[in-house]
Amino acid sequence: MKILLVNNQARPEVSGIARHFKYIEETLVTMNYKVDRLVAGNKNQKGVNGKVKYFFFGYVGKKMDMSATELERRKEKNHSLFLDSLKKIQWKSIDMVIAGNDIYTPALKKYIDAKKIVVIIPSPMAFSDKINPGGYRKITHRMKKNLVDVNTVVLSKKMKIMLRRFLPAKNYKIFIIPPGIDTKRFSAKKKLKSNDILYVGRMDKEKNVEALLMSLGMIRRPLNAKLIGTGSLLGELKISAKKIPNKRIYLAGLRKNVERYYNESKIFVLPSKYEAFGLVILEAMASNLPVIAFKPSKKILTASDEIILNGKNGYLVKDIKEMGEKIELLLNEKFLRLRMGANALATAQKYSWSKHAKKLLELV
Question: What are the φ and ψ backbone dihedral angles of 35, each rounded to 5 degrees?
Fold first, then answer.
């Protein structure tokens, strides 16, 4: 059996969906399946796994100052580049496609039966009328059209509830398949905990990193914090971090060896407003760290409450003030922090990429 994985980003250090697809790739190869990858990139990029063949489609990035006309041209150009890339695939040998977005499905259906396509929905942002009031109708109309006869996968119960608002069970198949965790890479190692607070993720608006900085500013004691990742707000956040007194806050940018930062930290904080699941929560828990995140609400669309058991393996907080209070509590109470870390590790051990991959394969 040969499986084609289709998603936008190849570099796993850049985004959660890129890491997700990299783990699917590695797991399928371990299970002795043949795998091809179709990702955005250029001819200078090379596949990192000798057993997997990579195909690349050109991609024009989005700029902050693009006009509506330029954005539409960009969309058309990217669609054309993607269509050209599909001609390179040896479709007679492909038995299944796993795609990281519904936008790929109209083109994919021209080459393979829709029932052999699995689409993993990457984020709840676009199809929420609260978050995306201007584009909500357009996005949901697109998804209704694209996901007909396709096996749709979400990572959390919350995302399935959101999708069911406009994708009725009668016409659309939606499956909840949580991601896994690489316990060889992310594990509890005995190491000097030189860093107090860790955040790993993009530095963009939806990740709400400014809220984390504000909560750190409310804490009375000195502390060290490391924020790993890059994005459109990196420069602004560096400026904000420097203004917080009595705190050493290091915004490190992209890092490939993120496991090192988990192992040298005491607490993981995820301030995101929107997450399909929150893979970094599992990475932190597998590294023996208690996790603090905002409790889901009308404004916080995450699945944090499906992973974090409040007061057991971390805390679900209602606002910035409480986030600062719980961070300070865990920094001051070592035994509480260690007990929660042990519970977090037990939680992470329930998830595996082999389970995730097997569930995906069962859909076709």
Answer: -135, 135
